[in-house]
Amino acid sequence: MNKGLFLLLFPFFLSCAGQDIFPDLGGNLSSPLTIAIDTTNARAYLNNSNSRVEYDWEQGSVQALDLTNPVAPTLLKTGLTKSYSGQMVLDSVNSRLLVSNRFSAAASSDADRILSLNISNPSATNFLEVTEVAADRDPFGVAYDSTNNRLLVASLNNKLQYYDLGAASLSATSLALDRALDDGTTLTTSNASRVAVLGNQAFVSRLAGGVLVINLSEIGDSSKNPVDYYLSDIHGPRGLVAEGSYLYAPSAQVESGRIVYRLMVVKLDQITADNTNTTVIVKNTTNTPALYEAKVAIGDDPQEVVLNGTHVFVSNQGDDTVSVVKRDGHTLEKTFTVGDQPFGMGLYTVGPTTYLYVCNVRSNTVSIIDVSGTAVTASYP
User: Fold this and answer.
1) Above pLDDT 70, what percent of the chain?
2) Does a structural domain hold residue 47?
């Protein structure tokens, strides 16, 4: 449920205060949205956002799952949180799970939060205990900036926020994304959605369209413009990921009068860090013909993207599938049919086998796939 719908229902919730309209979430799954895999400890953390309000509207949860048997996860503990949480980052050094959360009811509110969950010891009473950290309005996408030991958070309030993970306490610094472009226009509403990091570059997708490329080494320097590029012909991107020589970003393209969805494979040698730009440089197929290595056909309404050394995986909410794209040659290899409205994904490799975990928001399940196969291997719960 988006915040607009939440606002419509909020007076109804208040008018029924004291009545148990919705049951408690407890250990149930409700709109499982994202998953973080702790390969070292054979654990997964599953975010139940409760964004469809199937249980008490105030409640969300994070479940810790034991992956000793990868195709039959077992529940270690459920930690209750507020609802409407988003992406997650494992901070292994500080034994915490960092989760974006958009619980605030008012659209005008600039006060949301990052949730910090203790993951140090599954046997301890404070395992999955939550500490709240202030964030800007509507945070969703998060990523770890390993070069600078920072958490990056994409905010719908036209900002990229960053947190020093080495500090004694977490607090946000903001980078405004409403910047002037070199074509004479200005991005006034960036609505940052997801963020990916590679080295000293961050890539931020905008709900309104396009991807911003940010020079992380310039953040905090008032004499610099950290926003280097605007990739203008990637339309409606959500998740994205960068590794090696490429950025992978889904896009809704208009071809022959109809919308088709493609995984845009951006060549990173075309968007190297620029330390001199005062305005944001616009890049697209027209003015930079060599910008894209490939544009691969994928499923309907793509959402999140993950990769390993050989393949890129894209969850497609519109047709309940996952597209598997070979990184060698960038061709579609196969498609898995999963549960209803797939969204977040995580990869876990045990010996020669790699498993893909896919969160199905509407069917309240997690599809478990041996990626060497051609069909879903198992399902949780």
Assistant:
1) 93
2) no
